[in-house]
């Protein structure tokens, strides 16, 4: 009985801090800067979001050169379909296939990377998704009773059971990297100020520091564009205030 209780406590702790079914931990080297791999996620996610394949292709090559595995980049694109739609993600995946094939033809043997850990058959998607969403929102309990939830219970179910469970439980990349990809994508889209504000806070709730989020804005400026960085910086300032 004591062993069973301990196991449940460990799994609940893992749900709050990361995945119960694989490593979702902090992959940062220090508390001031994003890792090189995280910096490379920013333009990949941004150009996946706006469909700029001409700029995405060199960003993919640079990401592979600097340590991202093929599966990590694929996971960023799979993750982003929930925010940018299947067409953008599928186009980005096609570009990645092309880049990998071209590099292989040149004799470059890129790292394939890990696959997602299997999920137990009794995986409670709604419970897991509720815990993840609460953690991202900086709450002890999940959002409940909001007007939009009452207006459309279906989309609330999809968000909780699919996005924050089916997708977030996949441990190919960490929660931090998922939120980093999300804010990069939202920063390069129009009409997403509210969502970007929420996810900037969510990124910090995964353990990214204020300095690392400010570093994200700097990377966005150098790899994507000044206008996008200035807009994201203003939203970040509002979030921090």
Structural write-up:
This protein is mostly helical and 241 residues long. The chain is built from 12 helices and no strands. The N and C termini lie far apart (47 Å). Residues 1-23 have low confidence and may be disordered.
Notable features of this structure?
241 residues, mainly alpha, 12 helices, globular
State the helix count. 12
- Note the quaternary state here: single chain
The rounded Rg comes to 18 Å
The general outline is globular
Helix fraction, binned, reads 55-70%
Main sheet specs: none
Number of strands: 0
**Which regions contain 5 or more consecutive residues with pLDDT less than 50?**
1-23
How far apart lie the N and C ends? 47 Å
Class per helix and strand makeup: mainly alpha
Q: What's the overall average pLDDT, rounded? A: 91
Concise synopsis of the structure shown:
With 241 residues, the chain is mainly alpha-helical. 69% of the residues lie in helices and 0% in strands.
Task: Chart the SSEs and their pairings.
Layout: H1 2-17, H2 36-50, H3 53-65, H4 70-84, H5 86-105, H6 125-137, H7 147-151, H8 153-167, H9 175-187, H10 193-205, H11 210-223, H12 226-240
Helix pairs in contact: 2-3, 2-4, 2-5, 2-9, 3-5, 4-5, 4-9, 6-8, 9-10, 10-12, 11-12
